[in-house]
Amino acid sequence: MFERVSDSDSSNNNYSDKDDIEESFDDSAEAGTEGDSISISSDSNDVPSQSVNASTTTTTPDTIEDEDTDSLEDPNNLEKMILSTGIRVGTPIKTKFMASFITRANPEGLYILDISKTLARIDVAAKFIGRVSISNVAVTSSREYGKTPVEKFCELTGARGIFGRFMPGTFTNPSLPKYLEPEIVIVTDPQADEQAVLESTRAGVPVIALANSDNITSKVDIVIPTNNRGRKALATVYWLLTKEVLKKQGKIKSDSEMPLTINDFEAKLVEEVI
What we know:
CATH architecture: 3-Layer(aba) Sandwich
Shape: globular
Order of helices and strands: EHHHEEEHEHEEHEEHH
Largest sheet: 5 strands, parallel
Structural class: alpha/beta
Number of domains: 1
Distance between the termini: 43 Å
CATH class: Alpha Beta
Radius of gyration: 18 Å
């Protein structure tokens, strides 16, 4: 299920999902990016569908992908910005679930995600979100660097943010004071936000997940392949998703109308107390 770049990458055997390594993904943002370019293919294979249980919902990502819709506006204009944030820099590990989203490994031993598929999946996710009332979309992040991007996404779109520790039963126990019945759940990391994914599955709620090269996405309905560890990468992917959702809502028509910048979505570094 898991595969490392090579045996020579044994130095990465102590790889951890803790937030204290997140900056390493930011630091590697520009590694191996020289000469690379971004393009979005019209081939439907670039956006492989993942099923949603038909017995629990009649709205599926597959039906959205079949529609004739515009892709992200002028993606080439975003190329330099996207590549510099490390949005496509993965981990030293890849799973079979994420193999189709990976293009290669860079000299540092990190898998590189296909940015064209990231952009295409963001567009698909935005269309899917547009099928329901935004107030019925729940977004959560157990990762520290994901909290600010989630806050900004919810602030601009009207989605419901779940901050702090995800309380077991939030989607499955009606007796809880903060019980929710969302129509769509967005998670920042299907591993770190595992409880939210599990409860969504039990409740028959579709899940959109930001997923890195080492994530298991068997319970995810729409995968957005991205670096979901770095501050800049998380700010960028949530900014892009917010922009597309706002366009689908008719609140903005172009990138220039976005009320907040990527920097506004970026979590601040926690200063050490001396």
